[in-house]
Amino acid sequence: MSYAQRETPILAELCELLVEDVYGELAARVFSVLARHGRQTLSALNKASYLNSRQIKHGLVVLIQQHLVFHSAAVEPEPASYEIDWQQSYALIRYGRCLKQVEERYGAQAANVMSNLITLGHTRVKDLREAYFPTRPRDGDESDDEGINSSKKSAANGSLFVNGHAETNGVAPAKVNGVKRSHPDEEEEEAHPEEEKVIGSVAELDSVIYNLMLQGWIMKVEWNQYLGPTDLHAMAGSEAMGAQPPEGTKAKQLLELGILSRKREIRNEWTTVPKPRTRKRTAADGDISRSNKRQRIGGSDWAPRGDEVIVLDDNLAIRVNPEKVTVALRTDTLVRIVRQLIGSVPAKVYETMLRQIETHTSRCYDEWADPTPVDPSVESNQEIESGELVSAREVAKNIDPNIDLFEGLDPHAIILLTSSYSSSTSSEVDAKGVIDPPINPFTLDLEAKTRIVDRHIQRLADHPFHFATWHSRAGYSQWHIRWQDLIPSLIQHEIETTVSAGNASYQKFGVKLLRALKKKGKLDERSMGIVLMMPANEIRSVVNGLTVRGFVQTQEIPRVERREAKHSLHLIWFDTQRAREKLLQETYKGMVRALQRLQFEREKVKVLLEKAERSDVVGQEERWLGKGELEALRLWKGVERKLLLQVMRMDEVVGVLRDFCGPLVTP
Amino acid sequence: MAPRGGRGGGRGGRGGAYNPSRGINIGGVELNWDLTGLKIEKGPSERFPAKPPPQAPPPTAGEDSMVQHYLAVRDRIHDGPFYTILNDGMKSGKKRRANEPAPIEAALFNPFTDNQTYTSKYRKIRRRIPKLDGRPYVTDLFPPELRSLLDDHTTGGADGGGPSKKKKTLQIAKSSGGGSKIDTYLKVQAERLQDIEARAGDADEYDEDEDEEEEEEGPEAIGEEDNFSAVSSDSEESGDDYNAEQYFDNGEDEDLDDGDPYENAYD
Asked: Where is this region: Disordered (chain B) (predicted)?
């Protein structure tokens, strides 16, 4: 079974809570049956549950629409079996994170499209257009314009929910017309410049979606995305196999490789962006900051010309790409760690670097990569793709110009790096370490800026974690990131942080012990004392505690025939993968506890919440709720925020421990 | 670092542990440390000193917006057609054990809050079954056995089969901002008023269809559930305009008398 798809009881509990929190009780009940019993057909589900078949079917539809469940209908329609998609179910907690990431990177409009996609599960482009810009089924073009404008007016006036029913009662109109007839409402935008910019036209919507697809945040929905890992494997196997099953080890190995490459093909097909049609841009489309977007597209070999707008295929079904969210999470986590360990300016530099790489990275690690060659020299010779390389000059160009790049650098170095280019009158450093005459960090030319940025990247590279690795001299200096080394260090860092957060003796000796064991391998008590340079009995309690917590493994090897404890070797060792999984399970447990606490706290204020959402109270809380009740509501909101915040922080730990690299196999 | 006071004095009988002129006396040994200005505790130490639990650091701006977005999306999903509250007293969807009877209605009834009053009509109605026919689907992606639920006979299909009463539209939000809930309430209410007037007729017919469907299948579980009060909810969402319309349409005139005002309410 695939590594990411393994399910554990505590994860099942966590996902159940999440599904219930987001999609309500019915979906969660059906989910819980599937979690308990594994892959099931509909009739087996009926048997295993107290729900009636209508409820189960409805629950399944909800789960399928939101991609929380795989089904095998495409390969074995009668009867189809259902299976939980654990990755996606866990990813429910990342909804907020995903939106924040998109908003940071591409602005509020993109975040709005994403939030709708998240709410809807997946959707066809035409339905999304229809929802954004409801059209009236009439013949005259003018009347349609009115329809669009009026609906937009209501949106701009501040109504959050688009109510399609009120405006549309009839057959779906021709979709192409809707595209052609779109008009941005210029007066509207002028009238409300301070409001959050909403998507103003179909062309704009299409271009936002297309841009997100190019960046990998939105992907196509295909029927084979609904196949569980086993079904997908079987399908890829039958496609790769050909006429007869292979014979002999060699042929079987080849088949394995063939299956892997077939799976990769299938997966890459999901994220390829279909080339959209374009049409001439009309005056009505307005300026949707196209130049800006074209620049950002960057890596793509095709981009619409300035006088064209994109028209996506109507029947294209799209959804959020969960793997991209993980990639962005990796960026955010690394930037946070760099900020903690090195400083805020290098963190900014690093953020710029990583975001540039992000565009070309579709996933953190390839689950279906070809097995790595045993000979390490082959691996080091592998070509690094150009998308994974970042030069200092690119960073200098793209970095936020309002950052004081000199911060954290030695003033002498600054003078050296800037002097030859900036001016003939060279500055000097006085006794207090102040540069005189001062150099303005915001008016540097690109060359000097590049050198300064390069110095910051060097600081990143010099850190024991090796956040960056030098590659070549292109663009002043070109860097890449060796994920295969960096991520295990992060995991180790996370484990050490956890161990050192214990009591005083863990703080003192726990991390020391872990590091010694990691370096030396298996040790018995005597050699442990020698390695740590301290008496064994001092460290014994720490070993004991860490063993109980599952971070340190023990082994007993008899030296004589009778397996006497006295005559046996008692070895201890540290295994990163085991410790990682242990910590991951504990993190899940922590999240479960936080969510349970949330449920409990909600139960305490249940009556009040019911009152607060009564239709006569809503919006007039001050009038109908007492002072104490308002205070309690505020308290509850604070509690909810705090608990969710903790859950999201733990989610970051889960990202580090689970999502950024595959299983660490010690040779 | 600083020794707890009192020991030296007790042992040597020389009075105070610390005398600046003589230096410090620990365990009978005089030490010439200058500890001027340092306050040394002489009393017995507290056995269980108060140790406040570690506090999580306050959220950064990014984390704050993350939580905001999560809450906003969740609230929208709760207001959407998929969110359900069964309120049937069960913890999971697994089959009951033989010796574990189904929770009876009386056990689930809270005499303090569940009594029907006139103002109960303002309470928020929660679905007990997702409303699937209000939006278009990519039907091909669903298994054949579930497709019948998606293209409902009451509507003509989004692709324009015949004239349909109601077009299927996705419910979307045009602004992703996590505005406070109270703001949204106000807007929703204004919109609701318009909508009620706009399409009173539609909903009535629609409800009848639903009810027939429910009566057809009659396993025991449904019968029980139908009597449960539907008004409970353990979440704090905003007004579900969708539901409430349905409610107002047929709620006031007929239902309040016959004991279960939620009979015709949405499920």
From this structure: 1-25, 40-65, 134-267
Q: Tens of pLDDT along B139-186? A: 889 998 888 888 754 443 344 334 344 567 777 776 654 444 544 554
Q: Residue A95: its chain B contacts at CB < 8 A?
A: 69-70, 73-74
Long-range Cβ contacts of B220-225 (<8 Å, 24+ apart): B221/A50, B221/A51, B221/A52, B221/B88, B221/B102, B222/A52, B222/A54, B224/B88, B224/B102, B224/B105, B225/B86, B225/B88, B225/B128
**Count of domains for chain A:** 4
Helix (H, G, I), strand (E, B) or coil at A600: helix
**Contacts with B, A 290-349, CB within 8 Å:** 317, 332
| Cα separations in angstroms, A612 against A295, A644, B101, B236, B237 | 48, 21, 34, 8, 9
Looking at A38, A65, A86, the residue that finishes a domain is A86
Is the distance from CB of B22 to CB of B14 less than 8 angstroms? no
Rg (CA), chain A: 29
Asked if residue A180 belongs to a domain, the reply is no
State yes or no: pLDDT of A580 exceeds 80: yes
Contact residues on chain A for B230, CB-CB shorter than 8 A:
none
| Pair (A330, A463) in one structural domain | yes
Q: Which of B76, B144, B167 sits opposite A168 (nearest CB)?
A: B167
Mean pLDDT of A65-69: 93
Would an 8 Å CB–CB cutoff place A23 in contact with chain B? yes
How many Cβ pairs closer than 8 A exist between chain A and B?
A: 325
Q: Distances in Å between the alpha carbon of A473 and those of A392, A454, A461?
A: 10, 11, 15
Considering CB atoms only, which of A123, A602, A603 is closest to B170? A123
CB contact under 8 A, B130 and A603: no
| A536, part of any domain | yes
Q: Assess if residue A284 is contained within a domain.
A: no
Distance separating alpha carbons of residues A355 and A333, to the nearest angstrom: 12
Question: Quick one: A447 and A355 in the same domain?
Answer: yes
| Closest chain B residue to the Cα of A644, Cα to Cα | B67
Q: Inter-chain contact A169–B165, Cβ cutoff 8 Å?
A: yes
Q: Are residues A447 and A335 in the same domain?
A: yes
- Contact state of A317 with B138 under an 8 Å Cβ cutoff: yes
Q: For A284, which DSSP code?
A: G
B contacts of A223 (beta carbons < 8 Å): 140-141
Contact flag A22-B74 (C-beta cutoff 8 Å): yes
Which residues on chain B are in Cβ contact (under 8 Å) with A17? Answer: none
Answer yes or no: do A562 and A651 share one domain: no
In the numeric block, which tokens belong to residue B197?
Answer: 């007037």
At A150, the amino acid letter reads S
| ipTM score | 0.85
Q: Does A24 touch chain B (CB under 8 A)?
A: yes
| pTM as predicted | 0.77
In terms of CA atoms, which chain B residue is nearest residue A152? B174
- Dump pLDDT digits (tens) for A74-87: 887 778 899 999 99
What is the residue extent of each domain of chain B?
61-94+103-135
Residues in B closer than 8 angstroms to A147, CB to CB, are none
* Under 8 Å between Cβ of B256 and B121: yes
* B217 vs A54, A80, A641: nearest CB: A54
Range of the domain at A423: 324-371+386-481
What's the longest Cα–Cα distance across chain A?
Answer: 97
Subunit contact A614:B124, Cβ cutoff 8 A? yes
Q: At which of A481, A505, A523 does a domain end?
A: A481
Regarding whether A348 and A453 lie in a shared domain, the answer is yes
